[in-house]
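Late entry, evening session. Most of the bench is empty. Finally got around to the prediction I had been postponing all week. Sequence below, unchanged from the version circulated by S.P.
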Amino acid sequence: MITRDYASDPNHRMFHQANLLKWNDGHGLRFTHDWFRFPGKFHPPLVEHILRSVKPSGVIDPMAGVGTVAVEAKAAGVPSLSIEIDPVSSFFIGVKTTPISRRTLEAAWKDLSDSLEYFRRTEKEIEIRKFRDIRVDLMRQGLSAVNATDLERLTYWFRRYVLLDYARIDHAIWNGGLPHRSKDVRRFFLACLFSSIRRISFADPSPVSGLEITKHMTDNIEDGYAIDVFAQFKRRVGLAIRRMDEYTTYLNKKGTTDTPSYTAQVDCLDLMKLAQPSGFEANLIFFSPPYCNAIEYWRRHRLEFFLSRFLDEHGVSALHRKSVGRTTSGRVVKEIPKLGYLPIDSP
């Protein structure tokens, strides 16, 4: 799977400091990078520069995050394999590297927006909800109507009406709001919904890592914190359509639209056991070094895990024990296993 170790080649121009400092030949586009906030995110221009310098036949990102390498690799016409154990991250990698035309997305958005209009709350009601939530029985009745009664357990993090509005949007995406639309289109709008979760919760959206209701947020809530779920969703949709249009236009211009971007939701420790996709050959492993225990990656996405239903509490606990940099769980100390690839296993 790996045919060359570029880091051991001191003559390779990628590693010349002057080359890195003077480089200003990037495309300068945001693509779909800022769609979803991720802790310890890779710097896209650096990825672009290295891919252009090395010109690999294929690239593997063993700790892919939300796909910075995959997005840039597709733009550069380089096949990629992204390995990521976090299901939310894996989901976003797939969505962000799947080009969909602006015309298709705008037509789909009109259908979805129209289907949600009946449930959208007025500005006057949003003001009322700053201090007076809907009754518990009304929330339960509404959640039951869209098969989302399991969301009630999250009322610590959300107002009751917010959970109901979220569930209605989620239900519309899969049940009638996007008639005759592809799975890729539905996943696109689901990604927009997921990316709005922190903004509609009581959790502070500012910290990159972690999940908590800070004093800043408790003060906001006490003063009256207006949350319009549909408005936040609409804002995220607008941004995502613009970013996808920019990305799709670039791919079409460069002729790299069909460049494969593979994603495997597995532990990166299983890298050498992973069967490579048919026809895929990589000669570069490329990733941003994680921040280990300095960032609790698993903790950042807990609300997204639950609302997406990718993981329940037991699943999050299992993921926690596999987090990067964690060699202890309770009193058990784990030895870091060897992968069987000398450049990685060497101290």
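Two things to note before I forget:
Residues 6-99+257-345 form a domain with the Rossmann fold fold (CATH 3.40.50).
The two ends are 21 Å apart (CA to CA).
Will write this up properly tomorrow.
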